[in-house]
Amino acid sequence: MRKNIILLIFLSVLLGCSSKIKSITEFSNQDGILSKNRIVAFDKEGNKLLEQNFGNERSNRITKSEYKNGLKVLEIDCDYFQKEDTCVLRQFSKYEYDINNRLIAETKFEEDSAVRFIRENHYFKDLEVEKTMTWGMISSKQPDYGEARVYIDTIYYDKLRRKIKIISSSPDFKKPFIEIYKYTKKGYSRELKGTYNNDTILSYKYNKLQKKAIKNKINFDFGDMERNKYEFEYY
Fold first, then answer.
1. What is the per-residue pLDDT for 53?
2. What is the overall mean pLDDT for the chain?
3. Contact at 8 Å (CB) between 203 and 1?
4. Taking a C-beta distance cutoff of 8 angstroms, is the pair 103, 95 a contact?
5. Which domain of life is it from (predicted)?
6. CA diameter of the chain
7. Alpha-carbon separation of residue 139 from 19, 91, 154 (angstroms)
8. Beta bridge partner(s), residue 80
9. What's residue 12's pLDDT?
10. What is the rounded CA–CA span in Å between residue 164 and residue 125?
11. Which residues of the chain have pLDDT under 50?
12. pLDDT at position 1, please?
């Protein structure tokens, strides 16, 4: 018990210095045997540079991000094949911003540079509207906007900039999908309405590390502390 308390205090100190965290490695603990699940790397400003997954014998996804003046401008997804020691490009995204450094558009490309989707962002006082145009399996380097499927997500935020409601609509939907979020100090609930005609409420409980991550705005989801262990490297 005393050892666990000391460990949590030590990790809390590390998480309290979010700008100094260089990487977090997650291990799964099964019958006392640790195996690596994923590693996430950050720059000195706390931006996520890399997320690499482990455990699949054939290939594992790696996501890399590039930043300019603190803003993400490029994200690359590739599948790493250990036997060939190579990472095969799958998709990549480019980001555009307005003069106030707010994201205005993300363009997702396939490995051959064909456009998978374009997502436009529009900001208002307490909400954000995302308009996504996608071409599915007929991605093209010169997409026909008249042939795009259009999806609109209206996202409402509270004073802490946490999403509290999402309304998803499209000409392809019979009715909108609705997500409602409610927060407590211990976690949050997510209520789904309109999905497959069944309403569902999902509950998520924060562990102590996740509370620290949220407080210090660390882009990392900590799993079950009984099943997972974490290793920190910092600048």
1. 96
2. 89
3. no
4. yes
5. Bacteria
6. 64
7. 39, 12, 25
8. 60, 87
9. 53
10. 14
11. 1-9, 17-18
12. 45
CATH number of the domain at 77, please.
2.40.128
Cα separation, 5 vs 11, whole angstroms: 10
Would you state the pLDDT for residue 5? 41
- According to the model, what pLDDT value does residue 174 have? 86
What is the 3-state composition of the chain as percent helix, strand, coil, each rounded to the nearest 5? 15, 55, 30
Helix (H/G/I), strand (E/B), else coil: 80: strand
Give me 52's structure tokens: 């690499």
- What is the sign, positive or negative, of the torsion defined by CA atoms of 123, 139, 95, 158? positive
Q: For position 224, what pLDDT does the model report?
A: 85
Instruction: Give the separation between CA 186 and CA 209, rounded to whole angstroms.
Output: 12
Q: Which of 23, 44, 107, 43 is nearest to 73 (CA)?
A: 107
Count of CB atoms within 10 A of residue 207's CB?
A: 17
Residue 164 neighbours by CB distance under 10 Å: 17
Residue 56, domain member (yes or no): yes
Q: What tokens were used for 184?
A: 């407590």
Dist. CA 11–CA 86, nearest whole Å: 34
- What is the residue range of 30's domain? 19-92
Tokens standing for residue 6: 């000391």
Structural domains counted in the chain: 1
> What pLDDT is stored for residue 225 in this prediction?
85
Q: Give backbone dihedrals phi and psi of 12, rounded to 5 degrees, phi first.
A: -65, -40
Tokens of 99: 């003069």
